[in-house]
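Regression report. Comparing outputs from two consecutive submissions.

Submission 1:
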Amino acid sequence: MEKMLIHGRKPLQGTVKISGSKNSSLPILAATLLTRGMCTIHRVPDLSDIHYMLTILSTLGCEVERASGTVRIRAENIRSETPYDIVRKMRASVCILGPLLGRQGEATVSLPGGCVIGDRPIDLHLRGFEALGATIRVQEGNIKALAPHLKGSTICLRGKQGTTVLGTDNIMMAAVLADGITVIDGAAEEPEVLDLANFLIKMGARIEGAGTARIVIEGVKELQGAEHEVIPDRIEAGTFLVAAAIFGQGITIRQTLPEHLQSVTAALKEAGFRIDITADAITVNNNGRRRPIMIHTQPHPGFPTDMQAQMCALLSTTEGLSKITDNIFPQRFMHLAELKRMGADIELEGATASIRGVSSLGAAPVMASDLRASAALVLAGLQADGITEINRVYHIDRGYESIDEKLNSLGAHIERIKSSSAKNRLGS
């Protein structure tokens, strides 16, 4: 198993290019199941989650080719059941339910795994499928869905913590081949949902309102193959913006879409950083004293829950009292214990973290608990005195393409080594 060693307090400067979006790529790859035609997807990031999805598609019978960020998929003859051993590794694998149900009229998918960040039920997905006419059974750890003829319906996807992105994706993919018109009220408004809709439209789907809270889908008889380029990953971009704020001397994030990051750049401006924005780039300049801020995560266009952990790392060394409340995943604070091991002064009450900035963090062995928590620990290590050892870095490889190499290109000193090597290096 690999670890990362972060040699702290190395000034960062320069330019970094953002990869394609993980959260767009996964449902778009799943959507290729909806057609027998060839689909070509560009700017697919090289991540373990992408590898798992392509393995699932191959297991279902798809022909998959991958080279230099481009994936070609032909789902001419497919099965409708997926094995637990693959699905358990990634929660987003549940998004194959919609396209399988839409095309095959049936699907059997193991209950998904993925990050341990609290309760993330898929009951809204299943309720939506039932509204389209599917019969759902959950038995022996599997979801079994049967619907010889899907019919359009009006579906509300508002849950206790707001909307569901994967649920919106799933219902939209099932509905494009259903008879009649489907209306999704309370749809997720995230850019990744719009990206999936744009791909489906290229395949011949009829969709209006994607990117808003109300999506209208008119079912069609069949879809054809299509070519598509995935949007930039706004969470990777946001993570590098925070890295620039933490220990940067002027860093530009390129090949991104600033309109997808308005809540993040607004928070950094409030915290005292100068942000310069062009059509496809954002520059962060550390130009003075940081200020404490209050953040509440919300569905898009609010502040994303996927950036909460990274902001905890930044605010841990920002003088004064900051507070972050996670309204999406109230239990998503497992990284706080690891930040406290590094000297952070943080108290958690319910879904709110109160952070009193300290003058500096100190290196310590820490454990990544999920994807975004691991990113926060990398950011904390960049500003810590000494060498921070991060265990379980497989979490970060699920959602960040070569994050260590990209940070090293900006001036960081990050090593990726085997566990036994880490012990020897730190003990020498």
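Submission 2:
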Amino acid sequence: MSTDLVLTRSTTLPLETVWARLPEISTAHKFGVQAVHNLREKMESKGVPFARECRVLEICNPKHAQVVLNQAIAISTALPCRISIYEENGRTILATLKPTMLLTMFDAPGAAATAREVEDTIIRIMDEACRG
């Protein structure tokens, strides 16, 4: 599924397999891992039952971040980029917010080319992770 704001990829590979590959693939594309979140574990640790597996990988390329932050520091509210991974209808789904669409919330037309480049790279990262 792909909407104006969310881009998804789907695979039959197990979530654990795709999750294990994401950091290495991101790093190969010059995106460092900033944080990892296991939403099910985090919610359960707070006493909130949550049966679904959902993890989020936060990644960033500092050179691209510098370009967009120099255009509008408020873009920091949308950084770093996030790739979510979860299961839906027997498939593993990767999802991300499109940087090109997020950019439209800010007055930063000079950052459009960088947002496109970041989005293209995140798509490649997700596609590679889904290929196994």
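Expected: both submissions complete independently.
Actual: both completed, but the second showed a warning that disappeared on reload.
Relevant detail on submission 2: Strands lie at 6-11, 32-38, 54-60, 81-88, 91-97.
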